[in-house]
Amino acid sequence: MKRMILSLTAMFMVLALAAQSVYDFKVKDAGGQDVSLADYKGKVLLIVNTATRCGFTPQYKELEAIYEKFHAQGLEILDFPCNQFGQQAPGSIEEIHQFCTANYDIHFPQFDKIEVNGLGEHPLYTFLKSQQGFGGFDVNDQRGKMMDGMLRRSDADYDKKADIKWNFTKFLVDTNGRVVKRYEPTDKMTDIEADIALATNPVLATIMARRSVRKYLDKPVEHEKLQIIAQCGINAPSGMNRQPWIVRVVEDQKLIADVTEVYKKENAEQVTRDKDFKNMFRNAPNIICVCTPAAGGGELDAGLLGENMMLAAQAMGLGTCCLGGPVRFLLSNDKCKFFIERLQIPADYRLNYIIAVGYPDEKPEAKPRDAEKVKFIK
Ligand SMILES: Cc1cc2nc3c(=O)[nH]c(=O)nc-3n(C[C@H](O)[C@H](O)[C@H](O)COP(=O)(O)O)c2cc1C
Questions:
Q1: Does the Cβ of 179 fall within 6 Å of ligand 1?
Q2: What count of Cα atoms within 13 Å lies in the side-chain half-sphere of residue 339?
Q3: Does residue 3 have a pLDDT over 70?
Q4: Residues 80-110: pLDDT tens digits?
Q5: Does residue 182 sit in the same domain as residue 295?
Q6: Residue 353 predicted with pLDDT over 60
Q7: Of ligand 1's atoms, which has the minimum distance to the CA of residue 282?
Q8: Nearest CA to 166 among 149, 181, 191?
Q9: Which atom of ligand 1 is nearest to 327's Cα?
């Protein structure tokens, strides 16, 4: 019997780890009915394991406040009571629900009780933990220090495991079902609120979701979308509205293929090594060439133009990559003159950088950013 339970658990774990997003999971509502998390597609989700007799239970009040603030913008809080930490959620789901409504007036969905660790853990939690492991408690915070001490006393290696550590651990899921962040119960609610603001505001979410894409589908971008991208580009601010750039949007696939042939001859070894190589513009079907005055200047304005275009593309489900490398090749190689001529760049302008654009065929992870670069002077 024990072996059967173990092999069933292993099977659920494999299934959970093969999942692409939280939309692949079903949970049970407080009435025992199946609910597919696919019903929450397009919403920002905060998934939290709760308990009614925990020192962190008053967080219900803050969760409800966040819910009221962001629900209209697309936030859902999914509450899973769990009795695995200090047996602090002992009641039936009805009792728990009654307690939470009476004491904290919660309005977000409360699901059936589940286990989040161990043999009986719900596959949703296997998935959540595989996506966002334990990042540690903030030991500079008194409560973080207390939790770290308490857990380390029972397991010196507790921090090496992705297990849920206590009640009120939270996972933030973006509008595409990706688990983007995990918060420990001691993490500041104001930080969580700031992340929710980023995730629920479409402009902020677009900014935060942009990544450089270097694998694209074999599908050129529709002319109408390229037009919108260009329109958003030239809507960027420029010093004294001088608009000191010119832009060339390349839709001619043969031109891209022809210049790539030159690149392939010059970089044969590198191209052969790259099994995904399609063209010299990081494999994108379309490119946008941004030019600035040959005499110098205008680079700042051109940068702003480019970011506008990349965000516009992102907002329409396209991927982009800003490219400097290919420009150096194009400008330094005489055999690429035909390409430059075809762009009809006036003599007093020069190609500055290129934006690759297309339908993404990869979902790159976010590259780290150094928050220390920013100082707030108060
Ligand atoms: C001016 C500039 C030039 C870049 N040149 C290249 C390039 O030649 N090839 C490339 O693959 N990525 C290039 N990138 C993309 C950066 O590598 C990328 O933006 C950076 O690693 C951060 O990753 P993210 O865009 O996914 O956040 C360039 C980016 C900028 C802003």
A1: no
A2: 29
A3: no
A4: 999 999 999 999 999 999 999 999 999 999 9
A5: no
A6: yes
A7: 11
A8: 149
A9: 8
The answer on 177 and 247 residing in a single domain is no
Closest-CA residue, ligand 1 atom 8, reads 325
What pLDDT is attached to residue 211?
97
**CA atoms of 16 and 11, how far apart (whole Å):** 9
**11 vs 317, more confident:** 317
Which of 321, 352, 354, 363 has most ligand 1 atoms within 8 Å of its beta carbon, as the pocket-test mutant?
321
pLDDT band at 150 (very low <50, low <70, confident <90, very high): very high
Q: Are 184 and 90 part of one and the same domain?
A: yes
Separation of 324 CA from ligand 1 center, angstroms?
8
Which CATH number is 49's domain given? 3.40.30.10
Q: What angle do CA 131, 284, 294 make, to 5 degrees?
A: 120
Catalytic residue list: 54
Say yes or no: CB of residue 280 within 6 Å of ligand 1: no
Both 187 and 294 in a single domain? no
Domain that holds residue 263: 223-358
Q: Do 189 and 242 lie in a common domain? A: no
Domain count, the chain: 2
**375 belongs to a structural domain:** no
Whole-number Å distance, alpha carbon 45 to ligand 1 midpoint, is 30
From CA 23, how far away is CA 123, in angstroms rounded?
Answer: 12
pLDDT of residue 16: 67
Contact 107, 127 (CB under 8 A): no
Q: Please write the tens of the pLDDT for every residue from 280-298.
A: 999 999 999 999 999 999 9
Distance of CA 184 from the midpoint of ligand 1 (Å): 33
> How much distance in Å is there from the Cα of 215 to the middle of ligand 1?
14
Q: Are residues 166 and 39 part of one domain?
A: yes
Q: What is the spatial distance between Cα 75 and Cα 77, in angstroms, rounded to a whole number?
A: 7
